[in-house]
Amino acid sequence: MTKETSQVNINELVAIKNRVQSFEDALSITGKTWEEPEGWPPHFIATLKAEILTEALNTDKEGNVWKPDFTNHDQWKYSVLGYDFKAGPGFSGFDYGYAHSATYVGSRLLLADSELALHAGRICPEIYNEMLK
Predict the structure, then answer these.
(1) In the chain, which end has fewer C-beta atoms inside a 10 angstrom radius, N or C?
(2) Closest Cα to residue 116, out of 15, 12, 17?
């Protein structure tokens, strides 16, 4: 995975997808522990879980974590929330204007590759669906 382009070679992509098959795998890869926060709204809890899952999926075999470079307009960045996982309301948006910019997805939820974004949604759809409720 390169920081400049966010391109992931096919062998590394397969390895990442094989390593991360669940939220528990994501905890193991990131070295984090999880205790459900009490009294927090479910969509906040789901967002925290999605951040951990995203970090794990953006971690290469050497332990380097890819982070989006917002100064590099040639670097593609992908989000799980742009896809439909057949579980409730969708999430999409488009806006363009020379004097207007906006973001609808937090930078902590961006992935380096579209296949990783699809994989995240397939293995943990309940996390992303809870975020949208």
Answers:
(1) C
(2) 17
